[in-house]
Amino acid sequence: NSAKNLHLFRINVKKDDIDMSSLVCESMFEDRFGRKRPEADGFMWVEISKENIEKHCTKSMIKLLLKYFNF
Using the 8-state DSSP alphabet, how is residue 28 labeled? Predict the structure, then answer.
């Protein structure tokens, strides 16, 4: 959706400093059936690579991120 604004944040931390199981998404969207759904359905550490982008992202997000990261 071209009306959405994507914000990417990169931080340098040690993996052990953040408990991934404690993270919660509070941002919601309404699906086509009118149900409220979280914008994110999970959190994980992923190295930024072409392979990981293609594995973990939707088609439209893949296109955007591959261009952004010059892959």
Answer: E
1, 7, 15 from 46: Cα distances, Å? 24, 17, 11
Neighbour count for residue 55 (Cβ, 10 Å) = 10
Structure tokens at 63: 């296109």
pLDDT tens per residue across span 23-68: 988 999 999 999 999 988 788 888 889 999 999 988 988 999 999 9
pTM to 2 decimals?
A: 0.66
Distance (Å, rounded) from C-alpha 36 to C-alpha 27?
10
Q: Which residues contact 23 (CB under 8 A, 6 or more apart)?
A: 43
Amino acid 46 reads V
